Amino acid sequence: MAASSHSIQHHVGGGFLIANSACDEVFTREDLSSAQQMFGRIVEDFMRTEVLPRSEELYAKDHTATRDMLQKAGKLDLLSLDVPQDYGGMGLDKVSSAHVGEKIGAAPSFGVPVMAHTGIGTLPIVYFGNEQQKSRYLPLLASGEKLGAYALTEPGSGSDALSIRTKAKLSPDGKYYILNGQKMWITNGGFADVFTIFAKVDGEKFTAFIVEREMGVVSGREEPKLGLDGSSTTALFLENVCVPVENVLGEVGQGHKIAFNILNFGRLKLGTVNMGGARQALNDALTYAIERQQFGRAIAGFGMIQQKLGEMTIRCYVGEAMAYRTVGDIDHALETVAGHDSAAVLKAIESFAAECSMNKVWTSEALAYVVDEALQIHGGYGYSKDYPAERAYRDARLSRIYEGTNEINRVLIPIRLLKVPAVAGAATDANVVANGPYDTPPDDPLFAREYELLACAKKFVLLALGGAQTIYGKQLSTEQEILGHIADAAMETYALESALLRTRKLVAAKGEGNCPAPIDIVRVYASDVADRVRHSGKQIIAALSAAGDSVLPEVVRQIAGYPAFNTVAARRRIADVVVKAGRYPF
Amino acid sequence: MNILVCLKQILDPEVPARDFRIDRAKREAERGAGNLVTNIFCENALEMALQFRERTGNAKIAALSYGPATAEDTLRKALAMKADTAALVVNDGNSKPDPHTVAVVLAAAANKLGGFDLILVGREAGDWGAGQTGGLLAEELGVPCISFVDSIEALGNLLRIRRQTDWGYEVFEAEPPLVLTITNHEHNVPRIPKVRDVMMSYRQPMTKWMIDDLGIDAAAARAGNTYYEVADLVIPQKETHCEFVGGDTPGEQAEAFAKCLAQIAAGA
What we know:
The structure holds two protein chains of two kinds.
Chain A: H1 34-51, H2 55-59, H3 63-75, H4 94-104, H5 108-118, H6 123-128, H7 131-143, E1 148-151, E2 167-170, E3 176-187, E4 194-201, E5 205-212, E6 218-222, E7 233-244, E8 248-249, H8 255-291, E9 293-294, E10 297-298, H9 303-334, H10 342-350, H11 353-377, H12 388-396, H13 406-419, H14 421-427, H15 430-435, H16 448-472, H17 480-510, H18 516-543, H19 551-560, H20 567-581
Parallel strand pairs in A: 1-4, 2-4
Antiparallel strand pairs in A: 2-3, 3-7, 4-5, 5-8, 6-7, 9-10
Chain B: E1 2-6, E2 9-11, E3 22-23, E4 28-29, E5 36-38, H1 40-56, E6 60-67, H2 71-80, E7 85-90, H3 99-113, E8 118-122, H4 133-141, E9 145-155, E10 158-165, E11 168-174, E12 178-182, H5 195-201, E13 207-210, H6 218-223, H7 250-267
Parallel strand pairs in B: 1-6, 1-8, 6-7, 7-13, 8-12, 9-12
Antiparallel strand pairs in B: 2-5, 3-4, 9-10, 10-11
Helix pairs in contact in B: 2-5, 3-4
């Protein structure tokens, strides 16, 4: 059955594929309240007064400085946003927390230690700790008196997390678990006080433990890394570490629930964090491009540079639209959930796992593009440590690797989408196959073509999901390349719709004449989405040809028919706007 | 001690010079992508009041602003920094009122709030830098004014007040009520509010008045520009040129350099 009215559907994970959101139903960055903006300004002031003056210490890998800054951030409550008020935290909404993440993301060398502490370092206890564990640890973690870290990865176990070899054995008196093993790539590993460590009880039962450093955790040397100089990354050595049985987090044998849910949770904020880094890199590039004179004029006026500045602006705008939309939807979903009901909160967030993965992949790749072009705009100076582009380039690289590699996340996106009953139903619904996911696109003269494209793209993603599921059944998860192409098409669809809705909302508030750049951004991005989805479509059709499906190729032909748009001129116009403003103005 | 701190919301003066734009026809700065912030000297004043309260344990601090509806953000931040109360007089008239109009409005609001021993204002605002409001406010209230103050201490019924001058410091002992204009010092760098206090600030009540609520000539206040006019507004053009001073020996070079300096001085 084709859906036509979806005021509720869009707030469900995966709902974007089967529903048509109105712009006033989504959250955009422009909707931040004055209190939320003030939270952001607290971070800006903190960065200006405490972090930037000491950036050379971070650059010199002085992690005492990192720890000191973290504790100062704690005094301003910046480490306790996601901790419930009952345990010394702020219990803030996710949009506020994500906005703070955006501001911290502007300086990743400090931002990563903060996010590691507040996210994977603290949240396992927030969501899986018992009353006694929460009371004991959360106030200390919220204030920054104790700093947290998360230890899952091992030398031989990365994405395949359940294959860890660290063992836990109950002591003869039944009072302790004795942990033995090694962990790798632990953020904050050099100075953290409290760790969530995963080990297998009796070599079998995957279990999480709250482990204090004093219990015998030994840090390895600081890993020599490509970037994130201010972030401590070490191995951890566990040799007969005695952990009291009351420090088992959750239940013995149930550690996988913690491991995977916390990664979902971490991804929730990565969208805005990545976009904070992209914003900063774009602004640095703009500063340089406006000031750098060649052939008697600022290089910001040259076409090649303008195309870059235009595209960087597009990526920032679109990424923000996606990221704030998702966190806004999650906040909306959480409104009906009691804050203290951790299981219900986790379930609500987990239902957006596909969106969280899409944000993670899309924004980390947008960040990669922006820092790369920012360096390129700087020319030879970009390669010098005297300019910020070099550091941003190195710092950004990890964002495509951590919190689940982009490859793992691409595999997860279609699998997660198919787990949403309404999506799985629509993907094999004969009516959807014939008519698309909804009856009629909105009547919107401004974006009529873009809405048509979106309808086709959604139909294409649903058909591809349905086709792949039908052909491969339970073996689908091994067809990683096909899953990756479907994930790409789904991400582009979500990104385009998010950008369109953000602009629609801006136009509604300010009038069409006052939003030329946001309108251009949507049109340029739609043009590129048509090309990219068509590319994914060709691969998917070829791979699924055994199904003898004729509808899928027809949809791809429709997508390919998206009319040509002068993206060169539009990117120039977008660049003119950001150059005139002197910085990213949205 | 009842302290009133007056705060002005302005366009962020920390915007990089290259991003600063003006609308010459309107004779005002363009907002562009700039943030609205609290004038730094006003925040220095609030910080001094907060520290005075912390030292003496005996002061109530009220924050007052005259400005557009957005100035509520400035007052919320003041509450988050831990001012006790806040009051906003909404300016629905001339968006660039002259300093005397501002002083009349602030004085009327201060009298309506009532009973202040000490009124602190920034020494000047980072937008126009007129630096007149403090003195005019004291005149309207009929109390003495001390300007460029960077430190206050309680001294029995008196206050010991230090003001900066071109040649050093002057120290006064004065009896409230007083108006002080506050300048910046390493000891009054405004604190960053905590997230918790920002949250609380949005739950606190705020007094809001229109100009008509103050018992002053509302039409004159809305007109707001009787003696003060911006005739023109331009961004100064910075011109630099580089000249190499010749000479074969260090002595000749020094002599040539000295002559060069003398010429510049003579030209000036």
